[in-house]
Amino acid sequence: MKIGYYPGCSMEGTGIEYGESLHSVSKAFGIELEEVVDWNCCGATAAHSMNKSLSIALPARVLALGEKQGFSEIFAPCAACYSRLLGAWHEMKENEELREKISKIIELPITCSAKPIGILDFYAKYITSEMKKKELKPFQRKVACYYGCLLVRPKKLVDIERFEDPLVMEEIMKSLGAETIDWGFKTECCGAGLSVSRTDVVAKLSGKIIEDATSRGAEAIIVACPMCQSNLDMRRPEIDKYLNKTTDIPIMYITQAIGLGLGMSEESLGLKRHFVPVEPMLRSPIKIQDSKQKVKQGV
After folding, report:
1. Which ranges in the chain are annotated with CATH 3.40.50.11810?
2. Which pTM does this prediction carry?
3. For residues 135 and 72, what is the distance between their CA atoms, to the nearest angstrom?
4. Top-level class of domain 134-294
5. Domain 2-117, architecture per CATH
6. Distance (Å, rounded) from C-alpha 245 to C-alpha 155?
7. How much is the pLDDT for 49?
8. What's the CA angle centered on 205, arms 199 and 209, to 5 degrees?
9. What DSSP designation does 217 have?
10. Is the pLDDT score of 295 beyond 50?
């Protein structure tokens, strides 16, 4: 099965381990991710704050190129890319005059026939049901599933029933044998694109996420956004300074967790690329088993 695939800048740069694990997992499920030929940056966090036409034209060109390749869907695993593609697609679909204007700017015809889908759509449509057919190695860890702000917003565009309390990743992690925590920070912002310009803001926002997850006993935070992963992982020195303590909870992509469940190597999943090491958590005693044993003993 082939799916139109837009990697965006992060999947080949700061989020390369996301790309590696996504390709490995997709292959295991018989899915071929076919790149949009000659794709360009979607504009990410900058274009829409500077130039309205540019903010639509950049993702529109990607969509137009995808249409040219015959795709009915374009999978954008990066939350920021998905948000920009989906927003542009919606605006052009609703406004023919705008679509014609953008078509002239990008010098390509566009009909909005190729709909952008995000990582949650991808899981729900192609992965979740197929996982039941796989023999999985249990991922017996207590985890916090963190969505961030872009995967489930804005409500009028993202087709998700529980946008304030989504459960897609929780369902997947439970099927892997994990225990998921119930917490209030799963859709809070990590600081997003302020990582360089206002690292102090990122440290504060991400610090609250880290602190809440660890206070509830989470052994890892599971993410599906390269910006969230980068802020929570790479900015750990600043986060620890804000919290006035050292934290060692790793930040894993859900594709990496699925890959481990499928028995894939840490190397193929990019697990050795993280700033906060994942290996100590994987090697430590399994707490879920211990807690279940206590229940059996009546403790």
Report:
1. 134-294
2. 0.90
3. 31
4. alpha beta
5. Up-down Bundle (1.20)
6. 36
7. 67
8. 130
9. T
10. no
